[in-house]
Specification:
This protein is of the alpha/beta class. The chain has 13 helices and 17 strands. The N terminus and C terminus are likely disordered.
């Protein structure tokens, strides 16, 4: 039985599928080097939706580019949301090399200057700064969500959670229990007890018919749910639904903050794909008029080169010294902390928060021009340099088919991005991308949309593909 929103062929809310005829045709058209690696990958790794069988074999990554095994370069507007600085930023790589040479590993019972400096840097950036917040590090975002859940249980004495359908908080069993993405929950049997879900807050599309975001039915329902379920100790949420760029109604999180305070539940924000800097501020919550009790970071925190996540929580929650909340082998990775410190330096010195706002504004401007010409471009949503282009049906083709055709038409021209929710083209460029390459990517997208809708011919590979040997 397939859960709501799940389509094994086309994927799910979290990304485009890998078992459709278009994916098979794309793989079959790869060159000999790419096919060899793809076939070996499929023989050796467990097959799973959204990843294996893989889309392409990559042998290099630099700045905004991915280099495939067959010599084709792709502009990476996906990057699993880790590439705020582009791929292989020299400052990050140099910092990692220095840390590996000096201190390749720090045993768990010890500390090290890299981890301490990073903790100081992150805590100081939070409202109230050092003294008001404390942190823990983890080797992945999913693990960090688990830490946040443990902390919420300890702090409130309650085991239940409230989250939103279609949300994604990680692939671990605890994170998948809290998340609302069907592909990560189906056929697993009992998940964590007490995990409840609500329809997501999406601006202009409230499923409860809200008109006033301050006093709408969705907020009343959330309040009533917390009141009727005293076992719920935390609301876990992406401030913006990342993979579809689902923006909340104005004032929503401020009102939720008040409800959580009234009902004694912690507010946990999952900013793993959003921060640092992607949305135009260092942390996304700075734009939501609500400060969480717990903030979870990951992905781009490691500069796109080292897996690292962090849990930042109000200091008054640090009252369980006889309990292991994190306690992971690579918790205070010197190289990971060095990568994050270098990444934060680059964000500050190169003004990447402002750059994110400027990139997003230019993308919206160009896409608005495109929407005026293409009626099936239904909506454009953006926050900083994260942009979602929602498609509708065209010429008898459903939106999901149109989105998938657009993806492969763009790949043939040298642009990679993600399809969210089956119909949303999500664009996530490096914040360091040159302006001319941003314009090139937007032109490719326009051509791909025209081709997918049947209004343009496929590209001539000898003319449009950029190949380096």
């Amino acid at each position: 039985m397939t859960a709501r929103g799940s389509d094994p062929a086309r994927g799910s809310g979290e990304g485009d599928g890998n078992r459709s005829p278009l994916r098979a045709a794309w793989r079959a058209a790869r060159g000999p080097n790419g096919r060899a690696l793809l076939e070996a990958d499929e023989r050796l790794f467990f097959r799973q939706i959204l990843s294996t069988p893989c889309l392409e074999a990559v042998v290099g990554a630099e700045g905004p580019w991915l280099l495939t095994a067959d010599g084709t370069r792709l502009l990476d507007f996906h990057g699993n949301s880790v590439h705020q600085l582009g791929h292989g930023h020299p400052r990050v790589l140099a910092a990692i090399a220095r840390a590996l040479a000096e201190l390749p590993f720090c045993p768990r019972r010890f500390t090290n200057p890299y981890a301490v400096r990073l903790a100081e840097r992150l805590v100081a950036a939070m409202p109230g700064g050092i003294g008001a917040w404390k942190c823990l590090f983890a080797p992945s975002g999913s693990v960090a969500i688990g830490i946040a859940l443990k902390l919420a249980r300890l702090a409130t004495g309650r085991y239940g959670t409230l989250a939103f359908w279609d949300s994604f908080h990680g692939a671990g069993l605890d994170a998948a229990s809290v998340g609302g993405e069907p592909l990560f929950r189906d056929r697993l049997g009992p998940l964590l007890p007490g995990a409840r879900h609500l329809p997501p807050p999406v601006r202009g599309r409230c499923r409860f018919g809200c008109r006033d975001p301050e006093h709408g039915n969705c907020l009343a329902f959330l309040d009533e749910t917390l009141a009727r379920a005293p076992e719920i100790g935390a609301l876990v949420a992406e401030p913006v639904r990342w993979t579809t760029v689902g923006l909340p109604p104005p004032g929503y999180w401020r009102a939720v903050r008040e409800i959580c305070d009234r009902r004694g539940a912690l507010l946990i924000f999952d900013e793993i794909p959003a921060s640092p800097a992607r949305t135009g501020t260092l942390f996304l919550f700075e734009q939501m008029d609500a400060v969480p009790d717990v903030l979870v970071l990951g992905k781009g925190l490691g500069g796109g080169a080292w897996p690292l996540a962090a849990v930042l929580a109000r200091a008054e929650l640090d009252r369980f010294p006889d309990t292991a909340i994190g306690h992971y082998t690579h918790e205070k990775s010197p190289a990971g902390a060095a990568a994050a410190l270098a990444a934060l330096d680059v964000v500050a010195e190169e003004g990447l928060c402002g750059r994110a706002r400027n990139l997003g504004a230019r993308m919206v401007e160009r896409l608005a021009e495109l929407r005026a010409r293409l009626p099936f471009v239904r909506e454009i949503r953006a926050i900083g340099a994260m942009v979602g282009v929602e498609l509708g049906p065209a010429d008898g083709r459903p939106a999901t088919a149109l989105a998938e055709r657009t993806l492969y038409a763009a790949l043939r021209r040298g642009l990679s991005f993600k399809i969210g929710g089956g119909r949303v083209v999500t664009l996530c460029p490096p914040l360091t991308i040159a302006s001319e390459l941003l314009e090139r990517a937007l032109s490719i997208l326009a051509e791909a949309l025209l081709e997918a809708s049947g209004d343009a011919a496929p590209p001539d590979p000898d003319r449009d593909s950029e190949v380096v040997r």
